[in-house]
Amino acid sequence: MAGMNKKPVIQVFALGGTIAMTPGASAGVIPSLTARDLISAVPGLEDLADLHAETLVQKGSANLTMPLIADIMDRASACDADAVVVTQGTDSMEETAFLASLMNQSDKPVVFTGAMRTPNQPGADGPANLYDSVLAATDSRLRGVALMMNGELHDPWRVAKEHTSSLQAFQSEQGPMATVAEGQLHWRKDCPVRDVSLSGVKEFAPVALVSAVIDDDGRMLDMVAEAGYQGVVIEAFGAGHLSEIWADKAEALAKVMPVVLSTRARGGKIFERSYGYRGAEIDLLSRGLVPAGWLRARKARLLLSGLLGQGVTNWKQAFTRVVKSD
Fold first, then answer.
1. Among 18, 55, 113, 138, the one annotated catalytic
2. 277 and 203 in contact (C-beta within 8 Å)?
């Protein structure tokens, strides 16, 4: 971090999203505010740090891509700033922050944030979230990538957006890493340290995500290979269970491509040695499926896509090493 008599330097990258939305010419709001606009709207923000602003894109976060996040992390690593703050839409932020953590090449803090309310709404939360993110980015205890929303600093491996509109939309099963109170960051636990890196990856393999539901014949699984996907993540029932029909189809897929077993449940890990009936986790793992551990399916898909895009020869070993590190 910067010296005792010098403010830390923070690079702010803006990508659009609700935090940058203003009323459009017709109906609804559109992303239009720049990084400098966002900074200028927060009283006292520039007292915390010397802020550099750059607007990379102005989009809804459903349009963000894996190569864009790779580019941001390259920029974060190369820039002279002490830390980086990324503002974007919240819809995909749990995924982008997780992917960024996989690609992180240093201990430099990178904090993702956004807003649940547009700047023109009563109680707009964007300014507070941006202030808290800069505050976190200047904290010497933060290492690597984190996500800041509603006064809570989250581990991108564990956080998820659980509500479409609540200010408390982002929740972590084990709770946030730190919270903001009285202008300070109060830590609940140390930041996780993981020996994980997809740095340098420029290609991402297409990986499908398919969710299991009752009384479905699994025809979606029949289409995965034909559609050109190179891998698939299956959101199974409960702790990792599929119908017998799905189990057979998943086994057939596992013979030709990586198949990862995750859960459609909102919390908890995939089991590996409890249920033994046909279609349960013991059976599925014996058929070649690989458990996602604590990773939610959306994040398991990103990890698998990056590994396959890197051309990792033993994807199963590499995937499992990452999962076990969580």
1. 18
2. no
Output phi, psi for 74, to 5 deg. Answer: -65, -45
- The answer to whether residue 195 scores a pLDDT higher than 70 is no
Rounded Cα distance between 3 and 289, Å, is 51
Stronger pLDDT, 5 or 319, i.e. the higher one: 319
Has this prediction a pTM greater than 0.90? yes
- Alpha-carbon distance of 118 to 21, in angstroms, equals 6
Is 164 among the residues known to form the active site? no
pLDDT band, residue 73 (cuts 50/70/90): very high
Closest CA to 266 of 301, 286, 294, 242: 294
Q: Which alpha helices (DSSP H) does the chain contain, by range?
A: 35-40, 45-48, 66-78, 93-103, 126-137, 219-226, 244-254, 281-286, 297-310, 315-325
> What domains can be seen in the chain, in order of their start residue?
9-187 (3.40.50.1170), 207-325 (3.40.50.40)
90 is in an annotated binding site: yes
Interatomic CA distance for residues 178 and 142, integer angstroms: 10
Interval 128-183: pLDDT, tens: 999 999 999 999 999 999 999 999 999 999 999 999 999 999 999 889 999 999 99
CB burial readout 127-137, b (16+ within 10 A) else e: bbbbbbbbbbb
Report yes or no: 88 and 16 within 8 Å, Cβ to Cβ: yes
Helix (H, G, I), strand (E, B) or coil at 110: strand
In single-letter form, the type of residue at position 184 comes to Q
Q: State how far the Cα of 69 lies from the Cα of 81, in Å rounded to an integer.
A: 18
Task: Report whether 20 contacts 33 (CB < 8 A).
Answer: yes
